[in-house]
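sanity check both lines:
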Amino acid sequence: MEVSSRKCFVSDCEGPLTINDNAYELSENFIPEGGELFSKLSKYDDVKSEILDLENYESGSTLKFILPFLKAYGCEDEDVENFSKKTLRFLPGARIVLEKIKKIFPSYIVSTSYRHYIKSLCDEVDFPFENTYCTEMSLDNLELSSEEKEELKEISREMIDLPEIKISENFDSMEDLPEDSREAVKKIDFLMNDRISNFQSSKFIENVNPVGGQEKAKAIEEISRNQDIPISNFIYFGDSITDVEAFRLVKERGGVAVSFNGNSFAVKNSDIILGSENAEIIFLISSYFKERDREELLNIVKDLEENIQDIEFLSEKGGDFYRENPPYIELSETDRFQKAVNKSMKIREKVRGKNIGELGWKKRYIQK
């Protein structure tokens, strides 16, 4: 049938399209040592979602945990909007991808990022905002007393002073974590569940629903229904732990999951591992998929692993950049997992910077 032959393109935003980590950058800008605070909460989030695998816990919850601290230090919606517009940074080639991709596919962005940031991106490149899913929140709706602001500032300092939470892909339980990491997780549990839970901001946190983990999978199912396109005809690009559930859904239904400059969680759960300092390769892979099914595309990728520099697209469209900086591409295979993580993370950190690149996976766990 005609409907079943249609394909759909879906991508995360931060990573495949932009090099920002907007929430991290907001924290770093508005909160003293806010980058460190965000990193601690991000590792805590990873432990809860991936190592403990708690039922009904959504990866990406860092984006709601950080909000009361932003508010305590005076950040409002207008500040988030202005900061997002001012700091928006596209991966080279991403503007071209978004311009071209919407001409050949129903195209969507499914992102954990705040609405303010995604709206800024859509305005900048004329991408339809109605074709996006993102985290809705309004700091203007959170009212804090002066006492609560001071307590939140004190809690932020306590969290910042905690030991680093060290995690690895091979950890399956709290017992696998180093002792000081376990204590740090327990301390954040106490601060979040015993202290902040008594604050006005606790109700605000509960009403924020980050579009990460299972919410991304739900978004794909909704897009599939609305477009009347089976998920087997979806190609999805992501780069982090918040994309894992979307990856798994797309793979299970026969679509294609692509890790683009991904961390270990993305690499492990993808069909294709793709790394590049230029996003135009995203359009190339997607355009191959337009006329082919999953297995045909995977066979093409297998051929490309050894001949990536010979692709006509690279010489014609990428010019000297791709000749000197060829993309990294291969199928996701368990026996080459660590090698794939190393290569993907190397490009990830080069493109996005060390602090942002390491969120979700610490460099100490990458084999040299």
Summary: Residues 65 and 205 are 7 Å apart (CA to CA). DSSP finds 19 helices and seven strands in the chain.
